[in-house]
Write a structure and sequence with these properties.
The chain has seven helices and ten strands. It has about 240 residues and is α+β, with helices and mostly antiparallel strands. A six-stranded antiparallel sheet has the order 7-8-1-2-9-10, covered by helices on one side. Strands 3-4-5-6 form a four-stranded antiparallel sheet, covered by helices on one side. Helix 1 crosses helix 2.
Length: about 240
Amino acid sequence: MTWSIIARDRASGQIGIAVATRFFAVGARVPHIAAGLGGVATQAMVNPYYGIDGVRLLREGRTPDEIVHILTAADAGRESRQLHVMDTSGRIAAHTGAECIEWCGHLKGDGFSLAGNMLAGPAVLDDTATAYVANDGLPFARRLLAAMRAGEAAGGDKRGKQSAALLIHEHEEWSALDLRVDDHPDPLKELERLEGVSRERWVHFRKFLPTRQNPAGTTDRAIIDAEVEAGLASQR
């Protein structure tokens, strides 16, 4: 019912997951990220604990191969599940159960991982991968969205469209960007609109939030407002 990409931006070190499907609120269940360590996407007959436990295992230092083995070995429903994991070293592991609905499969790239099920055909993943590689000059969020758009143009989820999500982490436990379109006739287009809105104020404001290195963050509103206004001015 879903296809997704996990990727790491070499320039910023950000980890991102983009996903789309003909199902409600995909962003609430599929993408999971352990900041600075890697990402996990659980789909098909989704098992939420693949994401919850997968993130914990990344934090424990387990490799993607180990994580996929641990999660699937303990799950009697694994043949109806799809799972892929990538860490910040670029190591990738994936599982597509034998009972996942065609077309289904996974694809490993240089710095990115793709998986999908109930798709129009293998071109969905192939074209997503091609677009991700071809758009390496784009900012990371827009690169992920461009890749997903290419997969949609190749047929996407064979049942149609409903929801999409984009999750990006830097090095903090809180997300740099967490956008969800839960129910929309053109969810990727709406996701692109929201990403554009995020560049108006959020991307400038977020640098002032508390971090582990600076637990208080910046609370001087004059400094914050000046930075936000400068960012807005640069986009005009």
